[in-house]
Structure prediction request, 364 residues.
Amino acid sequence: MKNRIKRDLMDLMMVPGLSGHEDRVRRFLRGRLEAMGVASRSDRLGNLVAHFPGVGPRVMLFAHMDQLGFIVRRIEADGLIRLARLGGVPERALAAQQVLICVGEGRDIPGIIANKSHHATTLSEKYQVTPFAELYVDTGLSCAAEVEAAGIRIGAPVVYAPQAVELGNDRICGTCVDDRAGCAVLIEMARLLKDRTSGPPVDLAFTVLEEFNLRGAQPLAQVLQPDIAIQLDLMLATDTPDMGARGDMVLGGGPGMSLYSFHGRGTLNGVIPHPAMVDLFERAAKTAGIPLQRSAQVGVLTDLSYVQLTGEGVAAIDMGFPMRYSHSARELCDLDDLVSLTRLLDVALGGIGPEFSLDRDDYT
Ligand SMILES: [Zn+2]
Prediction:
C-alpha cells in the first residue's frame, strides 16, 4: 500500500493543476480510476466523482485536486512577466523560485521569479520581503512579441515548477503535497472500496477551486446530498522550532482529526465536527491501533466549511495528515501518515452501518 500511495503522490505532484485549471489533474485521476476498473463522472466545474453503492447513510469522501499559484497579469515590453496571485501564496517564499507557465501540455514554458542581485542589495533591503507587485518572472524570452509567440497570454495559469523528492525516512517533499497527498489517499481508498462487500454508499470526490474560493465542492454536494462528509487535507505539523506554540501535531505521528478550524479575515467560516464523526474516528483509531492526533487551528479552512451547509446540514469532519511548510513550493509529508490515514478511513467507513445514528443527542 505504501508504495502505491508513494507512486500516486509522486506522479500527481508532477501534474500542474492551478485552481480553475484542474483539467490535467482530473484527466490523470480519471485515468488512474479507469485503470482499476472504477467509473467516474465530472460536473460542469470539473469536480470528479466515483460512486460506490452500499447501505446506510450516504458518505461524501473528498479531497481537493487544485493547487495555488498565479495568473499572468501583464507582459512587459521587455518580455518580463507580472503575476497576480491565486490563493494563499507566501510572498516570503517566492524569490528565486522556478515556475511553470501552463500554455498547454508539452508546450509549458519554464521561468524564474527574479531575486534582485545580492551585490546590489542595500542594507535596508536585506531583511525585507519584496512586495508581490514588484516581483516579475524571467522566461529568458526577450520581448513581449516573443513571449506571446510562445503562447503566453494574460490569464495564463502559473504554478511552482512541479517537483517531487524522496527524503529520508519515507518523507516526501514537493509541490502541492496540499492536497495531492489527499488525492493519493483517495485513489487508494477507491482500490479498497471497489473490492468491499459491505458498507455505506460512498461518493469519492476530487474537488476543484478549493485554493481559490473554497466553494468548488459546494455544487457537487448539492447534487450528492450526503448525510456525512469527510474531507482529507493537510494538518499543520507543529513539530519544527518555528511552529511549536501552535499545537501538538507531529510529522510521522499518525493521521490527524480537526476538532476546530476557523478563518476570519472576510471568510468567516470553519468546521466544528459533528459529534458522531468524532466518536466514529476515535473508535476506529482504537480498533485499528492507530494513533490519532488532534488539531484545533485558527487560520486554516477547507471546502468542507461550505459542504457542511448543504441540504439539512451534513455531519462533517476534516481528517488529514501532518504537513510542514504549507503553501511553499516545497511542502513535506510522511508516507506512513498517509498509509495510516487510509487504514483509519477504511475501518471508520466499515463502522457506518444502516443503524448508524446522526442524532446529536446520542453523543452529547
Ligand atoms: Zn488544501
In short: The CA atoms of residues 324 and 332 lie 5 Å apart. The pocket of zinc ion is lined by residues 64, 178-179, 210, 233-234 (CB under 6 Å). The chain has a mean pLDDT of 96. The first strand starts at residue 41 and ends at 42.
